Amino acid sequence: MDLTPALVPPTCGCLKRLASGPADWGFVPTRTETPRSAQDAARLLAEAAQARTPQWIVGSASRLAALPPTPRSAIALSTAGLARIVAYEPADLTLTARAGT
To answer: In angstroms, rounded to a whole number, what is the distance separating the alpha carbons of residues 101 and 97?
Structure first.
């Protein structure tokens, strides 16, 4: 007797859009920034906040289904430039990684 529950896809249709990207969610970036350091990211976010410009932090867009609603337009701040392993402690089985990793 198999007691494994049947997997049923959600009815929202989000899995169809999951692998595509922000445009499929109605998001059109006014511009895209890819900072190379945390300081650059902080500066860009502060400038946008001061100008009252909407901003949205995007990674690979792999979790959009979990994070609606997506803004219609905003500055897209990509974390792709923040990819790096900061620390690895194999004895502790721990890893510290930057946002774009």
So the answer is: 6
Name the residue among 57, 58, 68, 56 with its Cα closest to residue 14: 68
Contact in structure between 64 and 25 (CB atoms under 8 Å): yes
Give me the count of residues in the chain.
Answer: 101
pLDDT at 3: 57
Q: Distance between CA atoms of 84 and 28, rounded to whole angstroms? A: 28
pLDDT reported for residue 5: 57
CA–CA separation, 53 vs 6, rounded Å?
Answer: 44
Beta carbons within 10 angstroms of residue 34's beta carbon: 16
The closest alpha carbon to 18, from 56, 65, 58, 75, belongs to 65
pLDDT means per 10 residues, the chain with 101 residues, are: 58 57 72 91 94 84 61 84 89 88 79
